[in-house]
Amino acid sequence: MRALRILLITAVILGGLLAIGDRVAVHFAEGVVADQIKSHENLSTTPDVSINGFPYLTQLAAGELDDVEIGIKSYEAATDEGGGAGGGGAGGGEKIRIDDLNARMKGVRFSGNFSSVTATEATGTARVTYDELLKTAKSEATQVAPGVTARVVGLSDGGNGKIKVAVEATVLGAKLPRPVYVLSSLEVRDGEVKVHADALPRFGGIQLPESRIRGITDFRQKIEGLPYGIRLDKVEAAEDGVEITVKGSDIKLAG
């Protein structure tokens, strides 16, 4: 009986030591992977990396991690020609800030020292603030009809997944006392976030040509160069900005 008790105590102690060792090993691996990703993506800060699943050491021996979460607080993605329906907006080579990018990687394979890390698939979320997206809109006063100029002065949450576009107009030299608000729909098409007015506004009771007014109210922003080779999937207006969903496959995280 005494021997059995000693055996059980020894097993519990060894199990505890193995669990502690497993957690120490996974913490070390998370730091190495984070440093590799920072270097591979030229990030200004080190991302958060969480290797899920227990025990880690068996995954290490197999050379593949089941589930890895990666978080980047702020990331500057490349943009392409944006602006209103008639052109303009952010030119190539400019950047747009992506906040709170969180990606979940599945089937993560790695070399022994984590110098090469790949994932079979990834899904995630991120956010673009309205101030960032406003840089894409036609914010300079543009003539939309004889004696009428207009420009976008603000973006905000319109509820029910819509974005509210505030348009300031000047009619025959007199600025309207308050902006005209337009509810717009969002969609992703070919890597572009597109903002499209659901209904066209009137300025001072004047009906304007659709193509002219959509040149102000409608705009788009191509977002490319996201980390790990992921791409835009869906967008939806929210309280603090545009919530985006990203996805990808055959992801290269390092190496």
Helical run tally: 4
Span of the ends, CA to CA: 56 Å
Weakly predicted, low-confidence segments: 3-18, 81-92
Mean pLDDT: 80
Count every beta strand, where a strand is a DSSP E run of 2 or more residues.
14
> Quick one: biggest sheet?
14 strands, antiparallel
Order of helices and strands: HEHEEEEHEEEEEEHEEE
- Please state the structural category: alpha+beta
Shape: elongated
Helix content range:
10-25%
Organism: Streptomyces macrolidinus
Protein name: DUF2993 domain-containing protein
Folded structure, characterized:
With 255 residues, the protein is of the alpha+beta class. It contains 4 helices and 14 strands. The protein has helices at residues 2-41, 56-62, 130-134, 210-217; strands spanning 48-52, 64-79, 83-84, 95-110, 117-128, 142-145, 148-159, 162-171, 174-175, 180-189, 192-197, 219-224, 231-237, 242-254. A hairpin with a 6-residue loop joins strand 4 (95-110) and strand 5. The longest helix is centred in the first third of the chain and has 40 residues, at 2-41. 31% of the residues are buried. The model is unreliable at 3-18 and 81-92 (pLDDT under 50).
